[in-house]
Amino acid sequence: MAIQSPKGTKDMLPQDSSAWQWIEQTMRQEAALAGYLEIRTPVFEHTELFERGVGDTTDIVQKEMYTFLDKGGRSITLKPEGTAGTVRAFVQGKLYAGPLPVKLYYLNSPIFRYENPQSGRLREHHQFGMECFGSREPTADAELITTILHILGRLRLRDLGVNINSIGCPACRPGYHQALKAFLRARLDQLCPVCKERFEKNPLRVLDCKEARCVSATQEAPEMPDYLCQECEEHFATLKALLTAQSTPYQVNPRIVRGLDYYTKTVFEITMRTSRGDLALCGGGRYDGLVEEIGGPVTPGVGFGIGTERILMELASQGIGTPSPSTTDVFVAHLGDEALLPAFLLTQQLRRQGLKSDSDHNRRSLKAQLRFADKLGVILLVIVGGEELARGKVKIKDMCTGAETEVEGGQAVGYIQQKLSEKREEEKHG
Predict the structure, then answer these.
(1) pTM, whole model, 2 decimals?
(2) 218-221 — which CB contacts under 8 Å span 24+ positions?
(3) Which candidate in 120, 140, 223, 366 could, as Cys together with 254 as Cys, close a disulfide (CB 3.0–4.6 Å)?
């Protein structure tokens, strides 16, 4: 039996790559417009990073991490999310010593979570994320929400929504925890076994449970926005004003707490209305204590992450087409062995001019080469050999119209450049 890919992973085949590249290009462009620079961090980190940063009461740390001992006996974990590694790099690289804020993004970052594979969620998936370090102002939060909306808008995704909440800070959250625990204590028998454990360690996580009995039991739970200190209340009010000022519709959803322990103040989700209900496409928020927790100086931060596979899935569900792969614009066929070298050299000349070109590598007959070029979907076919080669010429065929033209060999590259330029102009206006 042939070896299969591991459960929960998926190959990106050549026919899929153009859609990925289109999404990635859009992400890069919008991140650059907002002043964000790319960072790349290792695919694995010391396990302690995630235990300290993400939180040992989270589902990620307790159930979903790929953790193993390396040959030196060190506990290593494949990256289960993007923020902690970016914070570690920010601290280790002493980026806090430069001008603040520092704006970073990561792209196509592989994320590993051991969970039951389901629609839009794989054990290995890829994330795009943006992280802003060194600003406490809600303008940074609003900027990130606006940027991801611009990205999704450029990808032509529809029916988007913005849900926001504030989960307070170390000054005001204890009071809310006390009120929430008092509420939950009277309903412990209605909670799922996991939430009964969360009750003691992190009661806020009970609100994040998706089990129907827990959702029902917490329907009337106290809401964090009612317990905010003055600083958090002003921060949240300003964020709402910023979103309103730029006509960004949003909803305050007190049940958004996010699944990671490092969040403070703002948390948000970008959702999409579907026949399957509202789906969370993107999640993020503020983590003002995370840099210090990982060993750096007191530095506020805010960021988000979104899965590329989820975007692709929703593009397909909305019937939104993505660019088709284009491998070759020009195919240089040769007639006879004496034409092999001139055809090869012409192909290289075309590539040096930035034209996607190819030639035969299997010693096919001319007829077989023409069939192969047709399958590639090339725009122009160049035939080198026969009487034309003896006269220093090549034959160029327009694969769309069938028209054939003889061109001097030394003028072939310029002629092909011009014809391809004309074809692209026709497509633009056409």
Answers:
(1) 0.88
(2) 218/183, 218/184, 218/187, 218/255, 220/183, 221/180, 221/183, 221/184
(3) 223
Q: What are the boundaries of each domain within the chain?
A: 16-172+228-317, 330-422
Q: Is 65 in contact with 80 (CB distance < 8 Å)?
A: yes
Which among 24, 25, 199 is positioned nearest to 128, based on CA atoms?
24
Blockwise average pLDDT, block size 10, the chain, 430 residues: 89 90 96 97 94 70 86 95 95 97 95 78 92 98 97 95 94 90 90 86 83 89 93 97 96 82 90 82 94 95 95 92 86 95 96 95 94 93 93 94 93 95 81
* Helix%, strand%, coil% for the chain, nearest 5: 45, 25, 35
CA distance 430 to 400: 14
> Per CATH, is 16-172+228-317 categorized as 3.30.930.10?
yes
What is the token pair recorded at 412?
A: 């072939």
CA distance 82 to 283: 12
